Structure formats: structure tokens, C-alpha cells
Amino acid sequence: MKKSKDEAEQTKRDIVEAAKGLFAVKGYAATSMSDICSAAGCSRGGLYHHFDSKEDLFIYIADQAFTASWENWDQEIDGTMTATEQLYKYADYFVDTLEKPLNKAGEEFISRVGADSEAGQRFLGTMMAYMQRFERLVQAGLDRGEWKGGNAQELSMMILGYFSGLSDHIQMMGKEDAKRFYRKATKLLLEGIQK
Asked: pTM to 2 decimals?
């Protein structure tokens, strides 16, 4: 019996949610397609109808997460905010949306498939799209004369690397303490790049 379009879409959502949870808990390598089928309550045929492979599913989840992240970010800011105000807001947003286990699964994914593989290139393309979007915020700070640093791409990588590295130290903090920590770190960062 053929599923309706709505049922098929629900199955896909169930697969994605199950896989996201498993990747976060078990990591990429330790999660099997059978694990995902069991958690989603679907057949292997149902899973492979929507996704060609575990790699394909993981890339879909990453792309979906990054796209949703920027859509939500667009709701957080307005056109009157300076780049500096946006960076403080981004620090809060970073804490609110941090998915450390999935970030670790992403690192594991790229080390398993290799950066030069087709799947690795697709994943890195998703990451680059995220970086390019962040570069717009940084470029605005440079264009408005708020910040120094010259190269928006390099400065974006430094800022995101800084924020990502700090996330290793907030796991035992409550959300508000983590936000205070990130605001202090952002202030320190800005002292180095503000004109």
C-alpha cells in the first residue's frame, strides 16, 4: 500500500528527528541505519526512500540546522542595530542554539568521510554557506568603520573559532551564566578589533 504524501513527509521528519538524536548521543560512526530505523519506527525501505545513505541523511540534517539557524537569526535582529550590537546578540544566540553533541558528530563525520570525498565536499559546502552568512555581519562592522581587521573572511573564522572554543568551557554552566561568560568574552574580543 502506497503512503500518502503527508504520511511520507511525516516519515521523513521522524527519520530526521531520530537520526539527529542518535547522532547527538552516539556520534556519527556508532549510529547505524538499523538504529535509525528502529528509533524512527520505519522500515529500511522507508529510510532509503528518503535518503540514499547515512552520509546523505547527516548532510541533510546539517543543512537543515544551518538554514533554520539563520532564519531564526534574521528574526532576532533589526536594521537599526550596529554590527557591535549584533555581535553581542550573536553571542547570546550562540549559547541559546549551541548543539555541542551534533557539532562533535560533524567533526567525526568529516574525519570519517574525508574532506575530499563527495560527501565531505557537500558537508563543507554547507559549512561554507554558514560562514559566508556570518561574514556579512563582519563585513558590515568593517564597512561601517566599527571594527578593524581588513579581511572579513579571516576575521569571521577567528570570531567563530573563538566562540566555538569557548563552548568547551560552559557545559557545567546554566544558560544565563553561559551568556554572561560569552558577553565578557565578546567584550574582550571587541577591544581588540574596535577602531
From this structure: 0.80
